[in-house]
Fold:
Amino acid sequence: MKTLWAPWRLPYLLNPDKDVKAGLSLKNNCIFCDAVSKKASVENLVLYKGKTAFVIMNKYPYSNGHLMVIPKRHVFELKKIKSAEHAELGSLLAASIEILKKYAHCDGFNLGMNLGAAAGAGIKDHLHYHVVPRWSGDHNFMPVLADVRVVPEHMHETYAKLKTHFDKL
Structure:
């Protein structure tokens, strides 16, 4: 039997209401607003900042290269997104897909939003798109039987590889 090692998940599992590395309580602060207020780095996983939106790696990924595209402005209702924000969000979604195709040679993608806690939003007060790379046969039985996701590359290695592509935008 092989061991699945995902050390970045332990702080979340031990205390899901606190982002330990950033020192933020998720009940009282917004991790996305905090992340975008700082310089893009491997510590905050921000890959790119545009005028109205940014790209960040998901700290608790569903698959290797799981990204989020997020408006800089703290907003949770889709109808309140301004047209310039919509345009940049769309542009960054397309760019993220192209970069992931080059980097990870994906067979497909899941794109979407979870709007509200009932829809599964972990951060429900700041809307965000998920960009989840997929490969044929990538998750087999692990999520179903063991509630485990297999992420084959350490997040910081993935960040370094993706950052070089986002720096070209």
